[in-house]
Amino acid sequence: MADNHDQMTERTDRAEEEDYSLDPRLVEQVLSAVEAGDAAAIDAAMAPLHAADIADILEQIGSGERARFLSLWSRGIDGEILSELDESIREEVIEALPHEVLTEAVRELDSDDVVDIIEDLEEPHKELILGALDDSDRAAVTQSLTYPEDSAGRLMQREVVTAPADWTVGQAIDFLRDGAELPDQFYHVILIDPRHHPVGYVTLGKILSSKRDVALQAITEDSFRTISVLEEEGDVAYAFNQYHLISAPVVDADDRLVGVITIDDAMAVLDEEHEEDVLRLAGVGGESSISDGVMETCRQRTPWLFVNLLTAIMASSVISLFSSSIEAIVALATLMPIVASQGGNAATQTLAVAVRGLATKDLTPSNAMRIIWREIQVGGLNGVIFAIIMGLTAYFWFGSPLLALVMGASMIINLIAAALGGILIPLAIEKMGFDPALASGAFVTTVTDVVGFFSFLGLATLILIGH
Amino acid sequence: MADNHDQMTERTDRAEEEDYSLDPRLVEQVLSAVEAGDAAAIDAAMAPLHAADIADILEQIGSGERARFLSLWSRGIDGEILSELDESIREEVIEALPHEVLTEAVRELDSDDVVDIIEDLEEPHKELILGALDDSDRAAVTQSLTYPEDSAGRLMQREVVTAPADWTVGQAIDFLRDGAELPDQFYHVILIDPRHHPVGYVTLGKILSSKRDVALQAITEDSFRTISVLEEEGDVAYAFNQYHLISAPVVDADDRLVGVITIDDAMAVLDEEHEEDVLRLAGVGGESSISDGVMETCRQRTPWLFVNLLTAIMASSVISLFSSSIEAIVALATLMPIVASQGGNAATQTLAVAVRGLATKDLTPSNAMRIIWREIQVGGLNGVIFAIIMGLTAYFWFGSPLLALVMGASMIINLIAAALGGILIPLAIEKMGFDPALASGAFVTTVTDVVGFFSFLGLATLILIGH
């Protein structure tokens, strides 16, 4: 126990110092072992690590180093490490594994983890892994793959612990004690009726703390809800977070129990969905990973830059309408980007709040009108504030009260346009059934660039040149 | 059971149709009941709802409607609804509750939920709630409040289930069966040594499925890790997600067990941290909520727009250095925003990947150099691609090969600058100990605006005007 305690202290210290990030010295150590071809040293370095941390190391090192690492240590790769690996390098790792290592690795996994690995693989690797499974597991995995991608059916594990709804605590305990094949982790016993419909669940804590003759039906949880096998995994994650679920039974179209989803899988989905949101809002394909190479990275980003180029050219063609005004008053060229930039930033603020509100289902048809109205007021108020600040700045910079007036007026117009664009565009994209995080950014800044340039240069032409 | 089954079907249907978002018709119905002053109708509408959904309704309706709702239905508000409420309206709701309703509401909560409610309240309300608790709960809450905000100590619940490390399964079962005061939800029995140090834990599933004479020590989980009471809650959430923890013991500086954190709380933290990331990246204070009013919204956003204004003025002053060039060739005014805009977008892409990589601890000192190098290559490659596209566009638009050359060269320069700014600025902000999502955006687009305008106008002046 003394040992145990020391280990624990060390862990705690490590956690406080390093916040769970990989120790760069450890990575160094692994890299020199790889360099030296010293498999024993790699073994020693990997031994105390969690599979998730080993997967992180594989992701952090370069692809050349990874290949050498795998040639030295392929026998260390197990199923858990495979499931922790980022998709972007999983294929590469699988290719490097001897056949019997791969076979053993996938055999030790639950069906949901095998599905998670297999769904992103190319055909030959898919076959390889399916072939490695025993018949019943292969059937389970193949069945899961018939459900749509990103559905509850792909996320669930098929190993469930059930009891007839009319059992008592004692019967449940005896059944569990005889314990045929229980899953590694389970938190509830699901009660089913004779038609295999789940009708409630009981926590293991309640079973343990109740008398043997208590009916299971009497101690079911209020929080019970079932999840349809076709439900989007993002909605599943939302339900877990909203209703504080720990596990939830999954049912087919006939309401029959087909599996169970546990909160750790829901949490992983929540994290992935968030990743997608952040990256999509910034115009990056949602699948980006830190271990992607240059070409893969360009493939994710260049198309969006191309879309941006088109919108930027559109905004520039607005400027070119007014070239004679700019020729007459060159100060216009200096000031016009300020109007566009303030609009772009204000719109991005509104957009982020709207996209997040849609993701958390806080922005709904019930309050959309009120939020739109709030955004217009905020836009107007900020418009007035920055109209005054920039009007005065323009006046002292260029000494023209009329130019200051034009600046102020176009600032108000553009910040109200920014508010409208920032909220209406994501609402419209959502209404059309697309992810509002996707493409909103490009559309919204097009609005603020075009309105910014047009209002500023147009007013200047009317008021300053027209005079 | 038939009833149960029908209810379930209905639930499933609702989930498929509506993805758990609040039914606007339900909100309508509540609003007309409020309008009509019909407390019974509100009761009927609320009865089937989960506390989280009731809280959502309170957040979705306007503040005037909320006040009337509360005057009609304050007795329906319980502890669970209070904990689900967004901070932005919690104070308002607490103020509207009769004293005995508030007392009863907070008494039924676990200590961690009371801490979560109380920590954001103003002093008088804090006192009010502390006063409502019985002595032992008050002591527990007061103790938790001594831990830093956003620490594991605030997040944990103090109700833990422990057993001496030398017990057998049978002893643990008897202890649980006698069941003094067990928490509502628990998933592990934590083994402690005589000095109250946690040395392992056992899942309830293992206890249920093992023979009575098996030692608890023999069936502990490999995943066991403790969390320091001072640890940042964001790091706690990371550890749960990384290591698939369901619950984890919390220890003080002497490694003594002081509480336990469960995954549902960790998941809620993960979600909040996401919210902060998205909003901060977009230049909104991380605390924004859909129920904030106009003034509160301005308070969160206007300061960032002011920072943006300063950086925009800085970029404009670069333009004003070259006003004589623009006067000579007005096409420069038309084309310059395109260079700046492409740079800003490319930088935002890199920034989002970097900020996300830092948040998930995938971007570390071990791979930072490789990622910086990747970004430079991606920037250079995109620079060449868009230099060609925009060079040709500029040539056909304005018919000047030299202008096309200037356009292309400045595009390459600015996209490389964007890559450098997008990765180095968040790394630097993180290194200084701040949240890289905060302020990165403003700094990064300043770089691309200034470099974009300077390189384009400077090269144009050298090559086109200098000629």
Q: Bin the helical content of chain A.
A: 55-70%
Strand segment tally of chain A: 6
- Count of helices of chain A? 22
**Number of structural domains of chain A:** 3
Secondary-structure element string of chain A: HHHHHHHHHHHHEHEEHEHEEHHHHHHH
Strands in their spatial order, largest beta sheet of chain A: 1-2-3
User: Largest chain interface and its two residue counts?
Assistant: A-B, 154 and 154 residues
If you compute it from the alpha carbons, what radius of gyration of chain A comes out, rounded to the nearest whole angstrom? 30 Å
Q: Provide the low-confidence segments of chain A as ranges.
A: 1-18
CATH class of the largest domain in chain A: Mainly Alpha
What's the CATH topology label of the largest domain in chain A? Tetracycline Repressor, domain 2
Write out the CATH superfamily name of the largest domain in chain A.
SLC41 divalent cation transporters, integral membrane domain
Quaternary state of this entry equals homodimer
- Identify the overall geometry of chain A: globular
Structural class of chain A: mainly alpha
| Assigned CATH architecture of the largest domain in chain A | Orthogonal Bundle
Largest sheet of chain A: 3 strands, mixed
Distance between the termini of chain A: 90 Å
Average of per-residue pLDDT values of chain A:
89
In what range is the share of β-strand residues of chain A? 5-15%
